[in-house]
């Protein structure tokens, strides 16, 4: 802000010099001559007081304009954070043969507070790393990076605010309806499938349009949360029979070494489905050779179709050398009863080079149903945060 103000003052001051020079020419030059010859020190009040008043008035006016501009300028409560991801690697059998490719993903998050406790959040991103990209020969959709192209777009906007001491509410668009959930999982996977911690459907992910939710601090380690997503249109509004709406709830207990959460969701669609998800984790009391353990299991009950299930187990060592080592296995998604079960396995190592740069190599294998060949990915992601 000081630099911005200085840039404003500089041209304004230059503009002020011109009238000041004209004013100086209008002063009584004889007064300076008398001073030079007599060596007497004269008071500035002996000069033309009217001209000095004009100059002072211009200076005061300039200061007032600068102060007024600053008061209505960029909010001092607004912060911005930036993330850039670069990935290179290959995925065997992704397109029938092993290929090497690279891509990028960029995201800018703006956060503003108006009361000191609320938060207006806007996410703006770009990238060519996903399945819809037309500029990258090899897609990196498993890493959940941005794929909307090189043009920046608003990817999500939400407003979060407290109500009393124990309740928090949020509303938004293109954000997760489960934004205020506290799922009991401490596994930090770089891949999208394992990062769900076994909750593929009951977490109310972004993409349905309007979102809203609430969280409640029950006390003694217990929290509860509600979530909603809806996609209204010109022919169907929100929370109507014609529209597709999803409702969810979660109850969580956490302490220093273990936690558990139970998640429920009712998802409307071609076949309305009810989902239940159970998650739990355990962490060692002190860092050492023992890893943390995270577990997730979800089952779905459609109105007419067969039930589905999915599972996840992840082990994470937080101090392996300078970084974090993770190993996980789980289903590739919701598996319908009677269909072939397919699983995914992964190993990753998260290495922080410094406070703003992290390198994460990851190796994974995804089993494919039927006669399709299994997919194997060997990737390295470099992330910058600033």
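^ Assign residues to that structure.
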């Amino acid at each position: 802000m000081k630099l911005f103000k200085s840039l404003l003052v500089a041209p304004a001051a230059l503009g002020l010099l011109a009238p000041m020079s004209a004013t100086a020419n209008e002063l009584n030059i004889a007064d300076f001559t008398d001073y030079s010859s007599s060596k007497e020190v004269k008071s500035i009040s002996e000069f033309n007081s009217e001209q000095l008043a004009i100059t002072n008035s211009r200076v005061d006016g300039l200061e007032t304009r600068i102060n007024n501009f600053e008061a209505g300028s960029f909010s001092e409560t607004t912060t911005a954070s930036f993330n850039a991801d670069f990935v290179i690697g290959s995925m065997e059998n992704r397109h029938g043969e092993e290929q090497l490719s690279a891509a990028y993903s960029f995201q800018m998050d703006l956060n503003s507070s108006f009361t000191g406790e609320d938060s207006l959040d806007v996410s703006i991103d770009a990238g060519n790393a996903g399945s819809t990209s037309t500029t990258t020969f090899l897609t990196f959709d498993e890493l959940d990076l941005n794929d909307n192209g090189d043009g920046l777009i608003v990817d999500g906007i939400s407003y979060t605010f407290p109500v009393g001491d124990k309740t928090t509410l949020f509303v938004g668009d293109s954000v997760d309806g489960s934004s205020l959930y506290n799922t009991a999982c401490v596994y930090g996977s770089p891949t999208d499938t394992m990062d769900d911690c076994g909750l593929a459907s009951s977490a109310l992910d972004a993409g349905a349009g309007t979102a809203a939710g609430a969280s409640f601090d029950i006390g003694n380690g217990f929290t509860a949360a509600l979530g909603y997503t809806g996609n209204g249109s010109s022919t169907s509004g929100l929370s109507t029979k014609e529209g597709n709406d999803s409702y969810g709830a979660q109850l969580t207990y956490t302490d220093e070494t273990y936690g558990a959460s139970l998640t429920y969701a009712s998802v409307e669609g071609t076949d309305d489905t009810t989902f239940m998800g159970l998650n739990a984790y355990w962490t060692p009391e002190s860092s050492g050779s023992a890893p943390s353990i995270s577990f997730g299991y979800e089952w779905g009950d459609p109105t007419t179709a067969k039930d589905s299930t999915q599972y996840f187990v992840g082990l994470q060592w937080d101090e392996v050398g300078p970084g974090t080592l993770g190993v996980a296995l789980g289903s590739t998604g919701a598996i319908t009863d009677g269909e072939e079960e397919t699983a995914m396995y992964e190993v990753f190592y998260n290495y922080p080079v410094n406070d703003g740069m992290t390198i994460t190599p990851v190796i994974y294998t995804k089993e494919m149903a039927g006669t399709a060949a299994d997919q194997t990915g060997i990737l390295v992601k470099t992330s910058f945060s600033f």
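The CA atoms of residues 5 and 255 lie 48 Å apart.
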